[in-house]
Amino acid sequence: MNTALEAEQHALEAVKDCEREAAAIIDAAQQQARAITERTNRRIGQLHVHCARVTAARIDILLKEDADAADQNIQWGREQRALAAAVERVAARMTGEEECDASSN
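-> structure tokens emitted (105 positions)
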């Protein structure tokens, strides 16, 4: 009977040892998972910052290009109006309307 009790005691101690070992493995795995999560979050944060900077730089370029295009459109509009006025003057001279306009003034 003592042998059976001793065997049972050894078995219980072995189970407790296994439980302690399993708890240590679980704790190590949880620590490793936390470290992975922290590293991943840090990398995601760095990626977000990088993307925000790149996006802001691209937006600045687009805004400048838009402003440049607007300036060019304004200049083009002025040139178009000047050209239209010149065409009207030439047409008036060619048709003799300019002389009529000048004499009526």
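The chain has one domain: 2-104.
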